[in-house]
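Issue: ligand-bound run for biotinyl-5-AMP - logging full I/O for the record.

Environment: standard queue, default settings, no custom constraints.

Inputs:
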Amino acid sequence: METLQRLDAASPDQCRLTLKPKTIPADAWRVPLRLLKYKTLESTNTTAYQLGERGSPEWTVVVADRQTKGRGRNKNKWESVKGGLWFSILLRPRISSAKLSILQFLAANATRQALEDETRLKIQLKWPNDLVTNRGKLGGILVESKTTVDKVAFAVIGIGINLNQKQDALPKGAVSLLRETRTRYERLRLLRAIVHTTATKLDDLDKPSSIMKEWWRNCIHRPFHVQITCHNETVSGITRSIDEEGTLLLETDDHKVRRISEGTLRLLDDQSG
Ligand code: BT5
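Outputs:
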C-alpha cells in the first residue's frame, strides 16, 4: 500500500482525485489477487502500469468507479462514467514479446464467457478488441505492456464493460448490461468472475490456436461483409478467418486476400458471403 501512496503523491492530479485504495482480503478470491479500489482515477491502465514499473506482483487488480481519462486504442477516448466496470489486471506472463498480441484475445474470451455465464445474455466478439451484442458495443479490452528485448516485463489488461448505465449515459453505438437485460449487476461479482476465468484460460497461453479458435467461434462477423479502416485506408470484404497472431484474413470485394493486423472494423448492412 505504501508504494501506492507514494505513487499518488508523485502525481498531484491523481492525489487530488484519488481516494485511498481499499484492499479486499486475498483469501476472498481464488487467485492470489490484490484488489485496489478507487473512486476516481485518470485511467486504471495508467495506475496498473505504474504499479507494474514499481514491481507490484501479478494479479494486482485496479478498479475505479469512474475514469477521467479512460482510453482505448490509439488515442480513442473511453467514456467511463459511474455505473460501469472499469478495471485493469497486472500480469507478468512468461512469454516472448512476439506472443503478446494473443493476450488481448484470451482476455476477450474470458470476459465474454464470464459475462455470459453471469447474465445469460448472448455476447459476441468483434475484431480486434470489442465485446458486443446485436445492438451495440458492450465493452472493450486494451492491453498495454512493458517489454525488454524480447521478454515481457509485465502486461496490463484493461477491461471496460458498460454495466448499470442507462441508455442516455452511454455514448452512441453503446449498450449496457442493464439496457440489455433490465437487471442491475454487482460490479465486484462480475470482476471476480472475469478475473477467475482469465486465470483459468491463462494456462492455455502457449496454445494460441485454441485461443483463436474460441475467439473465432464467438466472432460476430464470421464470415460477414465488413469494412476496415486503418491509416486513412478503407477496405471492404468478407472476414474469412483469423490466424494465431490475431491477424484477420479478409477476402476483399475484388477477391484478393488481405492480411490485416490493425484497424477499426464496421459491419456492413448488405450481408453477403
Ligand atoms: C476499446 O478501445 O474498446 C478499449 C477500451 C478499454 C477501456 C478500459 S476501461 C479500464 C482500462 N482503463 C482504460 O483507460 N482503458 C481500459 P477502442 O477499440 O479504441 O474503442 C474506443 C471507441 O469505443 C471510442 O472511440 C468510442 O467510439 C467507443 N466508446 C467509448 N467509450 C465507450 C463505452 N463506454 N462503451 C462503448 N463504446 C465506447
